[in-house]
């Protein structure tokens, strides 16, 4: 594949058997993987059923090269865990994943789609801004997990 050629990469719903490859994409992309919690295989399989059609992968000839997880609470949709293998970056794959996930969430009747991006993740910040997401939402995020890694 030449740099920039994404014509053979398809965006498709993730399947349970994709778990190991997805986990590898997260690791190679330096995402923190909480295998004892939300990113564990059992949790992934459960969530895959809850959010049918919202967990998406970028597939290059049966090799998973990118992933995004869409969720919602029936009121607001969330784009989570976006990652693309380093050697596949800067080809528009992340934008395709986000756009496909956003559309899938909205097809379920959700009118607001959001993403949390860490301030040091400049590439993701630029991506979401380019895709029309706004940062003009003044909030303070609180959380109370049941256990570390949850």
Condensed summary:
This protein has one domain: Gcn5-related N-acetyltransferase (GNAT) (Aminopeptidase, 3-Layer(aba) Sandwich). It has four helices and five strands; from the N terminus they run βααβββαβα.
Description:
The chain is of the alpha+beta class. It has a single domain (9-130), classed as 3-Layer(aba) Sandwich (Aminopeptidase), CATH 3.40.630. Helix content is 29%, strand content 23%. The chain has four helices and five strands, in the order E-H-H-E-E-E-H-E-H. The chain has helices spanning 19-28, 41-50, 93-107, 122-130, and strands at 9-13, 55-60, 63-72, 76-84, 112-115. Strands 1-2-3-4-5 form a five-stranded mixed beta sheet, sandwiched between helices. Helix 3 (93-107) links the parallel strand 4 (76-84) and strand 5. The radius of gyration is 15 Å and the shape is globular. The termini are far apart.
Please write out the topology.
Layout lengths: L8 E5 L5 H10 L12 H10 L4 E6 L2 E10 L3 E9 L8 H15 L4 E4 L6 H9 L20
Parallel strand pairs: 4-5
Antiparallel strand pairs: 1-2, 2-3, 3-4
Tags for this entry?
150 residues, Aminopeptidase, alpha+beta
The secondary structure category is alpha+beta
Strands, total number: 5
Q: Please summarize the sheet with the most strands.
A: 5 strands, mixed
CATH topology: Aminopeptidase
CATH superfamily: Gcn5-related N-acetyltransferase (GNAT)
- What is the radius of gyration computed over CA atoms, rounded to a whole number of angstroms? 15 Å
